[in-house]
Amino acid sequence: MKQKYEQPLHYLTQILLKQWDESSGNDINNNIEVMIMKKQPIGNVIDPRTAKATMWVIENFNNQIVSSLYC
Domain residue spans in the chain? Predict the structure, then answer.
């Protein structure tokens, strides 16, 4: 992410993204298998634009609210 957007993510955002990755392991595989059987595109699971927008909302919250509490 840092390389793509030329800035590091807030550490709480990184933790949340890691938790999402770890918690979605089997569910994503099951969803992909179902989509393949139904011949649906992977974009039907979650729109990549929605995922990206959600990540940036969380990042902004962490930077503006959480960080100011610890300064």
Answer: 2-69
